[in-house]
Design a protein that fits this description.
This protein is of the alpha/beta class and 319 residues long. Helix content is 34%, strand content 13%.
């Protein structure tokens, strides 16, 4: 049976039951007072404007649904369409455009655009629970350039005027973490590496000078010289940055072929989307359905308003 034929993609009551099972694995709790007792589920009745998934708390007399405190809050879009959108974004390797979501879900472009950004917010992990390379594994670090940086107007090479993205890939776990940065200097990059990479890790980079300054923070630092067409060290075949280059190839194809343009103030959410799909990919044993469930579990506490969606990116140490 196709995943998209499952009831929670088409039946609103089934959609709420499915989301509640992921967000409330131990059962519902009042979003107002936190009580888990004396909770009554109200039968939905659209004619009387009683919405699906409504609960009433006997402790504080408040009403709530699973939408509260999540990216779904105050959304008039049916939960079934939310789940369809999340599945489409999680199962499309290079992403799905807002125009395509608009056509598929039969909503306006403005709704689809905001919907996609809220889903990207759910995909964003924030600070790492476990640092990369914790067991002495290899962590590849590299940067790439995309689009125009509106904050830069000074002299320099062509890439100075582009948006700069720093990415870390843990070779052992397969996880990726990206950060939009303003400058590629040791002073700007050092806090990101120190906050996200364990001291016992083996750092893998190209020949960029800034990494030579930062390499001593870690147990080992291997480099390859791309300017001399060296992509794997002849002395040690484990020293390379081919894994992160593979990540960038997916990212660039998605940004150029699907999204085509992303402003700097929203770029960190696009990076979170590509990080999420890469960190929970088929090669790591995570299929489309499991990846979608993981994204739904991440919707809690990540409320994003339309006006707030234009805010600047997170602090650099949050990588």
């Amino acid at each position: 049976m196709s995943v998209l034929s499952k009831p929670y993609f088409h039946d609103e009551a089934a959609a709420f039951t499915f989301v509640e099972g992921l967000i409330w694995p131990e059962g519902p709790h009042c979003r107002h007072c936190g009580s888990v007792n004396r909770l009554t589920k109200v039968t939905a009745n659209p004619e009387k404007r009683i919405r699906h998934g409504l609960y009433r708390c006997g402790q504080c007399k408040g009403q709530f649904t699973v939408r509260m405190g999540t990216i779904f809050e105050e959304s008039k879009l049916p939960m079934t369409k939310w789940l369809q959108a999340i599945y489409l974004m999680c199962s499309s390797k290079k992403g799905v455009s807002a125009l395509q979501l608009s056509r598929t879900l039969e909503v306006t472009y403005k709704t689809a655009w905001f919907l996609a950004h809220r889903i990207r917010e759910a995909m964003r992990d924030g600070a790492l629970a476990i640092p990369f390379g914790e067991d002495g594994g290899a962590v590849e670090v590299d940067e790439t350039f995309i689009g125009r940086d509106p904050d830069y107007s000074g002299p320099g090479a062509a890439y100075h005027g582009k948006c700069k993205v720093l990415t870390l890939v843990d070779r052992q776990t397969g996880r990726a973490k990206s950060q939009v940065v303003d400058k590629l200097s040791a002073a700007d990059i050092a806090p990101i590496l120190e906050a996200n990479i364990a001291r016992e890790a083996r750092l893998m980079t190209d020949e960029a000078q800034l990494y030579k300054v930062l390499g001593w923070h870690f147990a080992d630092h291997g480099t390859v010289n791309h300017s001399r067409d060296q992509y794997v060290s002849p002395q040690d075949r484990t020293i390379h940055t081919n894994t992160i280059e593979g990540y960038f190839s997916i990212f660039k194809r998605g940004m150029k072929g699907v999204y085509q343009h992303a402003s700097k103030k929203h770029l960190h959410r696009y990076m979170a989307e590509f990080d999420f799909r890469y960190s929970y990919r088929i090669a790591l044993g995570v299929n489309d359905e499991a990846r979608t469930n993981r994204a739904i579990e991440g919707v809690v506490g990540k409320r994003l308003t339309y006006r707030g969606g234009t805010n600047q990116r997170p602090e650099a140490t949050q990588a």
